[in-house]
Amino acid sequence: MKKVLILGGGTGGTNIANHLRKLHNTKEMTITVVDRDDVHIYQPGLLFIPFGIYKPEEIVRPRLKQLSSNINHIFSEIDRVEHSANQVHLKDGQILDYDLLVIATGAEILPEETEGLTGTGWQKNMFDFYTLEGAKNLAQKLGTWQGGRLVINVVDMPIKCPVAPLEFAFLADWYFHKRGIRDKVEIIYATPLDGAFTKPMASKFLQNLLSQKNIILETEFNTATADGKNSKLVAYDEREIPFDLLVSIPIHGGSSYIEKSPGLGDELNFVITDKNTLQAKCAANIFAIGDVTTLPTSKAGSVTHFAAEVLVENILAWFKGEELPAHFDGHANCFIETGFKRALLIDFNYETEPLPGHFPFAFGPMALLKETRLNHLGKMMFSWLYWNFLLPARPLPGIPSKMSLKGKKTS
Amino acid sequence: MGLKEYAGKQIEIDDDGFVVNVSDWNEEIAKAIAAENSLTNLNAQHWQVINFMRKKFTEDGDTPSVRALGKLSGVSIKELYELFPKGPAKLAAKIAGVPKPRGCI
Fold first, then answer.
1. Could you tell me if the ipTM is greater than 0.90?
2. Which of B1, B38, B61, B104 is flagged as catalytic?
3. Contact (CB<8Å) B68/A268
4. pLDDT at A322
5. How confident is the model over A279-305, as a mean pLDDT?
């Protein structure tokens, strides 16, 4: 009997659990998923909550409902992983043994790590939209806001869905147009990066889009303090940005149990993971998937989805004692909502930056690095695919886990 | 990519001005790169960061970020910005002869 333990019942953990259950019956393998609660949030939906496009209840479902039957579950906080003993200690006192451990506990925001951010003004004139609570509060605020300086600030990288803050800026432009007060709102996008985005071609494209929409870009802004009382951001180089309304994308980190687990994580509590095999550096029988890893690609659901296929293959090989056959290429695929019912699509991996062209086939029908109505429909339809294909581990037709150069303009 | 002379030695550098081969580096080259970036006096704290950066790169194969430096190098983020103005991780990496920090994706 093989014993698989999965930490985290989010995108990666749920997909892996369901996929393994399809391949092995309960006599061959026990599968147990640990999570602290029964609340599964469709995280890409958080972006739309502040603008009233989605209601909070539309993006939340019970975790258990997403797991096939015959998968065990435990609700508890995790205390630590002891990899040398093949054990996980839970906060409720239980000790769980495993033959193979999958870590999929994601990344969380750490607003308290930025001076002042959770002080005076937090959730009053300073908000986040990476939590359900924050997104809800921001929706209320935006609904009655009469205008002023809106500052969107990425405190530090890495963050989940690195395009989401840009999408927020684009949607804010659209939203205030719709409310007829765009002329009363100044939108500033402050980032620690030296451009709008990390990858050169997409960065240039997005930068043009920001300027077309009259959104001011402030680069290499490294936030030291968020001062809600005096309504300003202060950078380490002493630059200041005043705001009337701050939308902060706080520092991210892995869960705190990782810090207590010997050898598991890096200084930000992300699990040190081989970018090709998805094996944890500290132990051969520990694998990690999704936002919790140190993989040099975007922290995004699409990456988790593509990595899941690789991971399952490697898990099966590991149990047979074979060399790990599958190599993840860092494939990411992101719709970027640009407002007014249009969106861009980018598709890239470790080696290839987002390029213009067509997707998923040479003829399309989707266009890469171009604003289209169809990309917007794709983005909005993705929620349905997420609950009905991605979590139950059904393959997405026409979209293989490895990135393809088909349709991409490489020169 | 190209060659550039630092401290009397021809060094291969990338498009962003970072030393390509970690082994090409020495302390004299560090001083020359620093001077080129308006840092004429490297003090003990500068060297603490530079040496930490090289050590961490050798161990992990990866250049640490500002946050990692703040947590691990023994120099606070605020001090890092005083020592290496604007982008401490980027500038310290350049002087330490290690690749540009990936920052993030």
1. no
2. B104
3. yes
4. 97
5. 96
